[in-house]
Amino acid sequence: MRLKRFSVAKRRIIVSSTTLRLIIAGILFVHGLGHVLGIMAALNLSKQEDWSSHSWLLTGLVGEKVSQVICFLLFLAVLLGFIGAAMALMGWLLPHEWWRSLSVVSAAISLVSLGLFWYAFPKFFPNKIGAIAVDIAVLVGFLWLDWPTEAAVGY
Q1: How far apart are CA 148 and CA 53, in angstroms?
Q2: Which of 60, 56, 80, 59 is nearest to 70 (CA)?
Q3: What is the DSSP letter of 145?
Q4: Are 30 and 130 in contact (CB under 8 A)?
Q5: Which of 66, 82, 87, 95 is the most exposed place for a label (fewest CB within 10 A)?
Q6: Taking Cα atoms as reference points, which of 66, 58, 60 lies closest to residue 42?
Q7: CB of 100 within 8 A of CB of 146?
Q8: Are 102 and 40 in contact, with CB atoms under 8 Å apart?
């Protein structure tokens, strides 16, 4: 009995620039909205013990109230930054050229915010791990891999 050899050709998935732009903008937008959790912690909107704006570094130095204000401002900056990045990528209200810069700055502030206010997000997984993963993906993708290119997103 003779066996036939089958070769499997590598398939490449091709996504239109509009689809890629929508996917990336959606991820940036939802990731930005997720930072509302930090704002909620700063405003004491949760009664859970493991969800607060207490900072391991700042609260002892500047006090509880100032720490809450800093928590609020940092997470608000990230929220607005990622939503602005998504809007700029789509060409809505903000110049398209801003989307990469807004994404990188917002990811860096997000990592600093999570490091300072670890309990501002209530669950380790998916909240904290998911946020850190997206922030690292943004920084690696944009700064190291230079992906996506402007041509890939249709500009």
Answers
A1: 35
A2: 59
A3: S
A4: no
A5: 95
A6: 66
A7: no
A8: no
Task: Give the amino acid at 43.
Answer: L
Q: Which residue has the tokens 């990592």?
A: 111
Side-chain half-sphere CA neighbours of 145 within 13 A: 9
- In this structure, are residues 78 and 35 in contact, taking their beta carbons and an 8 Å threshold? yes
d(CA 61, CA 69): 14
Query: What residue type is 71 in one-letter code?
Result: C
**The model's pTM:** 0.89
Alpha-carbon Rg for the chain in angstroms: 20
pLDDT tens for the chain, residues 1 to 155: 454 454 545 666 678 999 999 999 999 999 999 999 999 999 999 888 889 999 999 999 999 999 999 999 999 999 999 999 999 999 999 999 999 999 999 999 999 999 999 999 998 888 999 999 999 999 999 999 999 999 999 88
